[in-house]
Design brief:
- The protein is mainly α.
- It has one domain.
- Helices cover about 85% and strands about 0% of the residues.
- The protein contains 19 helices and no strands.
- The protein is globular.
- It starts with a helix and ends with a helix.
């Protein structure tokens, strides 16, 4: 790869990462405030209902692609109009088939579960969202190939603002769970309109056996991992919901929401690393360096934020009287925080496997996680309820150390040495902040002291033991500023 091309990719990747980090942080503020207000107004059962139906419809999304979009992003040569039309045609056929399946099986499910208008309205809104998402695929692919994530981000920002703004307004007016349905429909429609304004393409229907075969040679193995992920995550969640019930599933949804906030930084990296890693896959040294820096930065940001959320979650609940209904979800939140920390480091590695064509490796890992999920989730959920579910999530997540070992094999990257300092710094401020506030009864004072101690200890430790890495990022920030 030519030096000029490398610098071009580096510049574009850095700009996109900075932009996506800021954008994701903004979105998380919006979604957190929106979710917080909704969970004050709505009960655990209503939150659980929307989560269950959303999981059900999300399953269809995995069957509407068969990996063709990822194949378009990953391929080295320019994408032709023929490739886009073939992908679009196959995808829409699969979408129609998925909707027909829903229409056939939903009546029997509704009758057996006693579903009414609430469930049906949410189902319709999410089905529309499913259709809109499929129509957005090709514009998204084109923008990702150009590493133009600023335009993609605009769509996400508008959709998130609309969803929570509308959902909160209608919930305040007493629409209850219908607020979710109305917000879902509007944000999906607006998002679809915006992305086509930003990236139009020559829409058309087409089919080519040769093109389909070429795309599927990569797409099917890639999508096989996604389908396994369906069994691991979506189907297992529905199984858990059936075991523990709507109320408990709502508590689990709340427990997962907080720890997911820091993952927005990981998402920013994930959004750009797959197309970026794909472009530099023929340069092992550059690929290794990119993976190393990505993982370190994720650990640097995600670890302390996850720990911070876990530290103050119980205090926040005690601070707001109407929020005490979510008290039972605090312990599961702790387990999810730890499992998400492990996942934050693991995901970029599997992303790199896919980018360099090691799809079979990812598939084997997904099979391992799926088997573990279907062993531990139902057993522990039956035995300990929603507490057991969160424990199972941590057990399955801990098996990701296998991926860290494989990273050494494929990329000569030692994950443990990369994350050692952020890990020690995080554990240090957890111990010190808990010790300092153990006998303090004032909730506000306790939160303030925890935050101050955590920030001071974390920054001080990293400056002492990881100064070179911090200076490197500072240097990159200065370089990035010159690129503007």
């Amino acid at each position: 790869m030519e030096e000029i091309e490398i610098e071009k990719i580096k510049s574009k990747t850095a700009k996109n990462f900075l932009y996506l980090s800021v954008r994701n942080f903004g979105i998380q503020i919006i979604t957190t405030i929106g979710f917080f207000i909704l969970t004050i107004i709505l009960g655990a059962g209503e939150v659980g209902l929307f989560a269950i139906v959303a999981e059900s419809i999300a399953i269809l999304g995995y069957f509407s692609d068969i990996g063709l979009a990822s194949a378009l992003i990953q391929q080295k040569h320019e994408v032709e109009t023929k490739d886009l039309r073939v992908t679009f045609t196959i995808q829409q056929i699969l979408v129609v088939i998925g909707l027909i399946i829903v229409a056939i099986i939903y009546p029997s499910i509704a009758q057996s579960k006693g579903y009414g208008s609430k469930e049906f309205t949410i189902l319709l809104s999410l089905c529309f969202s499913f259709i809109a998402a499929s129509l957005k695929t090709i514009p998204s692919v084109l923008l990702e190939r150009k590493l133009d994530f600023q335009k993609l981000s605009l769509v996400d920002i508008v959709e998130n603002i609309l969803f929570y703004l509308i959902a909160v307004i209608f919930a305040l007016f007493g629409f209850g769970v219908y607020s979710y349905a109305i917000a879902t429909f509007i944000k999906s429609l607006v998002g679809l309109i915006i992305i086509y304004r930003l990236q139009w393409w020559d829409i058309g229907i087409g089919f080519s056996f040769e093109t389909t075969k070429k795309l599927m040679s990569y797409g099917l193995p890639f999508q096989a991992n996604s389908l396994i992920a369906v069994a691991k995550d979506r189907l297992s969640n529905l199984l858990v919901a059936g075991i523990i019930g709507r109320e408990s599933f709502g508590l689990l949804s709340w427990a997962q929401k907080g720890p997911r906030i820091p993952l927005s930084f990981m998402d920013a990296i994930m959004k750009i690393t797959f197309p970026t890693f794909s472009r530099i896959q023929d340069n092992p040294e550059l690929l290794k360096k990119s993976i190393t820096k990505s993982i370190y930065f994720i650990a640097l940001i995600v670890f302390p934020l996850l720990a911070g959320i876990a530290l103050i979650s119980n205090d926040i609940i005690n601070l707001i009287p109407k929020y005490t209904k979510w008290q039972p979800a605090v312990v599961p939140l702790y387990f999810y925080a730890i499992s998400y920390a492990i996942a934050a480091i693991t995901t970029p590695i599997t992303n790199a496997f896919n980018a360099i064509g090691k799809i079979k490796t990812t598939t084997k890992l997904m099979i391992m996680w799926t088997v573990l999920t279907w062993i531990f989730y139902p057993i522990l959920s039956l035995k300990f309820g929603y507490y057991g579910t969160s424990i199972a999530a941590l057990i399955v997540g801990s098996s990701s150390f296998v991926v860290w070992i494989l990273a050494k094999k494929y990329f000569d990257t030692n994950i443990f040495s990369i994350i050692i300092h952020p890990s020690i710094a995080t554990v240090s401020f957890i111990i010190l902040s808990l010790s300092a506030t153990f006998y303090i009864d004032n909730t506000i004072l306790k939160i303030v002291i925890k935050v101050l101690i955590s920030v001071i200890v974390y920054c001080f430790y990293l400056w002492l033991w990881s100064k070179d890495d911090l200076l490197w990022f500072l240097k990159q920030a200065k370089w990035l500023k010159k690129q503007q």
